[in-house]
Amino acid sequence: MEPGFAFVLQATIALIAIANPLAAVPIFHSIVPAGDVAAKRRGANRVALAVFAILAGSVLIGRLVLGVFGISFAAFRVGGGVVVTLTGLDMLRSRETHPSTDKSSAMASDPLIVPVAMPLIAGPGTIITAMTMAARARTEGFPWLVIVAVAAVAVVVWIVLTLSSWMQQRLGSRGQDIVVRFMGLVLVAIGAQLVLAGIADFFSLPVPPDKQ
Asked: pLDDT tens string for the chain (212 positions)?
């Protein structure tokens, strides 16, 4: 039970770090009326559900996609680890880690789904991380451990967006920058671990169970 809990915790932290829901707060505020508490709650519900659907779908079809393209778990771990590491480095350097959006793209569809849910929160890096974690699970059946982590991420996204006004006032720009840099450091460490585990798996090197 403890290894399973540790895996869920690690997957949750990795997904939250790379999703970085705080980065979506300014655009969320521009879409949802600041004084309308009910509208903000409904918007947070829609975004959280969309993030869960996107990431859970990535987890569920991840094995199928890898099989279609003939990609091994080891290679996918290394590739995903490199992407996660680069994203973490960008966050440490205070670079933009999410694709920029313009008004035309927001007008073309529901702005709470595109761009807030995707790609601002559930972007390419987050999807790759979810699929990599599913590959790490090494389960033959339903990848429920990663689904639990995805559900936890959706809950965190809902909390952040629901309390976005209060958090923005409390943290301020400097506080938000500190959070982003800390999450970037966590991502660099997680990405490095994914790369090393993938290399060890590819060359059939012995790896401790808690490092896989």
From this structure: 457 788 889 889 989 988 889 878 877 877 887 677 888 899 999 999 999 999 999 888 877 887 899 888 778 778 878 877 887 788 788 655 444 444 444 434 578 898 789 877 997 778 888 888 887 776 544 568 899 999 999 999 999 999 887 776 777 777 777 877 887 787 788 788 878 888 888 888 765 555 55
Domain for residue 79, yes or no? Answer: yes
Split into its structural domains, the chain has a count of 1
Domain range spanning residue 180?
Answer: 36-203
Neighbours of 43 (CB within 10 A): 21
pTM of the model: 0.71
Judge whether 210 lies within some domain.
no
